[in-house]
TrEMBL record:
Protein name: Cytochrome B5
Protein origin, superkingdom: Bacteria
Annotated ranges, domain Cytochrome b5 heme-binding: 6-77
Pfam families: Cyt-b5
Organism: Limosilactobacillus vaginalis
Transmembrane segments: none
Amino acid sequence: MTTRIFTAEELAKYNGQDGNPAYVAIDGTVYDVSNVPAWRNGKHHGNLAGHDVSAAIQRSLHMKRVLEDLPVVGKFTGDPEV
């Protein structure tokens, strides 16, 4: 299976709005948070789906444990183009 690579522009499409799935990038990995109730409508404690939320995770007491149960959908480059 080929690993999907997300640029910042591509990840932004997965914001949990208007029927789109909610994806977040954390430390270079893209996770699907669409089915996590706390991420309803692509928002969670001021964080937005479709973005790299690595810095916010560093401040979270429980989030690293939560990541273990989330589906991984790809890798995040952060680059505008691959």
